[in-house]
Amino acid sequence: MNTVNASTGFSGFQLKSGFSPRILPPLVPCPVVNGAEEDMALRVLRAIELDFHEAMDNMIASKIAQAHHANKSRGKEEIFDVGDQVMLSTVNCRWKYMQKKDGRVAKFMPRFDGPYEVMHAHPESSSYTLKLPDGVNVLPTFHASLLKHYEANDNDLFPSRMLSMPGPIVTEDGEEESFIDKIVDERNRGRGKQYLVRWRGYGPEHDLWRPGREMEDTEALDVWLKR
Description:
Blueprint: H1 12-17, H2 36-72, E1 85-89, H3 91-99, E2 112-122, E3 127-131, E4 141-143, E5 147-149, E6 169-170, E7 176-177, E8 180-189, E9 192-199, E10 208-211, H4 219-225
Antiparallel strand pairs: 1-2, 1-5, 2-3, 3-4, 6-7, 8-9, 9-10
């Protein structure tokens, strides 16, 4: 209570009472003149107020100094815009995976997952809100240190990295059909709705808007309506 704080420059006792305590009481009692008690109380209140403001100034100066030294070793932070595709670090997922302590190892887990679309950007606080898949029970806002820009594969430079897309199936009538993976969005069109369909084995660039009548009696629509 009597130790001087390095950030405020005051002891807790002084900020609370307006003066530092005496180690030994005075040997001779000080006589109190009539009316002096009120003046003494006002002086104590003023001293507390001055100490409080000075402590706040010292706290601000201390935070500025801490930020200055922390920024010396901090690299340039990436900035993301709304609509950007980003990869999300799986460091927290690997940690939870290892916490089960059943002999599991996480060294073969991917370091990043995605891509995910940036829905809201708050560069002033280094936080970004992502559009995560339905059913993911986590807060969709992450620090910039957990994100990196998504770089799509150049199929001309790296053809071996290109993922093969499954072809559509052919029905007995000779029509081509693809399997629906899930519905990712919906919109109103006229008196009905349209659903943005993601096809199984295909990426977001192949999503298509399909009329609601074509989605009736599909499992994907049931899952979408129950979200």
